[in-house]
Design brief:
The structure holds two protein chains of two kinds.
Chain A: H1 8-12, H2 14-46, H3 51-66, H4 69-84, H5 90-116, H6 119-127, H7 132-162, H8 174-185, H9 188-220
Chain B: E1 6-15, E2 18-28, E3 33-37, H1 44-51, E4 59-64, E5 67-68, E6 71-74, E7 77-80, H2 84-92, E8 93-96, H3 108-119, H4 124-137, H5 153-165, E9 171-175, H6 183-198, E10 202-206, H7 210-216, E11 219-224, E12 227-232, H8 234-239, H9 244-255
Parallel strand pairs in B: 3-10, 3-11, 8-9, 9-10
Antiparallel strand pairs in B: 1-2, 1-4, 4-5, 6-7, 11-12
Classes of the chains: A mainly alpha, B alpha/beta.
Chain lengths: 221, 256
Amino acid sequence: MGYNWDFSVVWEYKITFLMGAIVTAKLTALAFVIALIIGLGLAFSRISDSRVLRGCATFYVEAFRSTPALVQLVWIYYALPIVTGVQLDNFTSVGIGLGLHTSAYYCEVIRAGILAVDRGQMDAAKAIGMRRGQAMRRIILPQAVRFMVPPFMNETANLIKLTTLGSVLAVYELLHASNNLITNTYRPLEVYTTVAVVFAIIIYPLIWASNRLERYWALRS
Amino acid sequence: MAEPIIKVRNVGKAFGALRVLKNVSLDVYPGEVVCIIGPSGSGKTTLLRCLNFLEEYDEGDIFFEGKLVGYLIKGNRRVKDTGNSLGQLRAQLGMVFQRFYLWPHKTTIENVIEGPIIVAGRDRVSALECGFDLLEKVGLRDKAEVYPSKLSGGQMQRAAIARALAMKPKAMLFDEPTSALDPELVGEVLEVMKALAREGMTMVVVTHEIAFAREVADRIVMMDCGEIIEVGAPTSLLRSPSHERTRTFISKVLSS
């Protein structure tokens, strides 16, 4: 339609993309670790016998799932220092914010995986004298992982894409770097296309690994 | 007469407004085989599960070898036992479930040795030795390295029996062990149970297999609507039950 595609500008600024991708990866790693640890704790709290633990975990999950991730990030960066006096840098704020946000979704994935395991498996473990913690680690979780992997990979893919929100707080991740590039090169289509390709390169291996794991488990059973 | 190994005294249990056990009392003596029969919903499985506290009973007491099951007495209050002692008690009371509940991510031998290693703290070598012996005993030595998904129903149930026996229990609980099996597979499981009975294992068996009960049980307990309505030796209870409800149930079962 008369537009001249020119991807040479993308190649010219490949280092910019690389630097942005590295920051995206670091941000993802920080958020992932936080989300996994908190998500596990929340999941066990939601299925615990303690009404207090269950209530607190449920409140957390519903609060973070019901509010936009962007609002949560902005609040952590701007409002938290006002409330607590603690000022975090933008990278840490985004990492922690995305970690807290994603932990709510991880919680539900983990909880659903655990609940999908037949209750009789826990009964059989208890019947030979296992404590609940032992049964969870050795019997339930290894089976629950199979149910968790596909939705878990989905949420992780979402987390990686959510790192683009860091650009709102001037974190120099891939999207922010790309926006700067567009300002200099006036090539938004080429740049955004490349961003999409880079994200696909990062995310697709996760999806591929998830599919392979599902096939392996299906064959084994 | 010896002290009962299992004592059930005035046990009651409700799920919400539904009372599933009402004032149930029963003694089981060492070496005895007690079969519990009754229609669906009569409370048989709930009673069995209360014996090892997989279900929490609300009223009354259950004792295993003189120890209160599931609760601790603190002062004049009764509190739930959440510590190691409940696990130790359960290890002494082997349980076999209607749907086997073998752990699918472990091989047959791994299912059997999991308890001895993780719960009883035995070393892997001796646990494996005992495990292979038990699988030999139930006729599954050649299936030791196979995953449960590759076993037939009868093989899975025999593996489940071996898993319970691996903890060297003092008594065994069976919850309708053959109900989920095809008819041609029932016999192999019943033979294993008969062998256990001949060896003197104390057994409480919830079952619909009246022929098994007649052949192996020392006593048969008839339950209905959450209550024990009749207890007797197989010959008397099955041939000339005194309670009308028992007569109706047995005639229906035998005619089907």
